[in-house]
Amino acid sequence: MAALAAHVALFDKKGELHTFGPGEVPPAWAAKKITNPKAWGGDPPVAEEPDESGKDAEIEELKAELARLQAASAAGAGADVQSSGAGQGSGSVEPPPPLAGPGSGRDLWAAYAAQFPGKVEVAEDDKRDDIVAKLRDASIPVE
User: Compositional bias (Low complexity) spans (predicted)?
Assistant: First the structure.
């Protein structure tokens, strides 16, 4: 692989910043992101074929997590979850409301938490942030 001729800064999948300087050979994930030919000390590396293995693995992980959540809610919530997801099939779980902005009010978060009756209990005086904290403590997705 070719070495760099200029300083380059890139964010990885996790959002962490990585910097590479002249003469360095960046890892494959970074080399794919460097599209400016002037950054390379010679010919830019040729992309052999897109590496979608990470995407496939991520999709499979998300499918497994979705199946686990659906099974848990169907086993723990029964008819409550089915009635709250009217028109969306049995055992479906509504996505969480936004954490900020329009549609992020306390009542919407209370309704979302109600989909997980065995894991989260919402008191009348709980504020939105209290409900979100309880959901996080119960390892229920909030984003």
Answer: 70-85
pLDDT in the model for residue 137? 94
d(CA 40, CA 5): 5
For the whole prediction, is pTM greater than 0.85?
Answer: no
Q: Using CA of residue 73, residue 76, residue 77, residue 82, what is the dihedral sign?
A: positive
Q: What is the rounded CA–CA span in Å between residue 116 and residue 20? A: 46
Residue 83, pLDDT score: 43
Rounded distance, CA 25 to CA 14, Å? 21
> Which residue has tokens 């099974």?
71
Dihedral angle sign, alpha carbons of residues 88, 75, 110, 95: negative
Q: Distance (Å, rounded) from C-alpha 20 to C-alpha 85?
A: 49
What whole-number distance in Å separates Cα of residue 59 and Cα of residue 19? 28
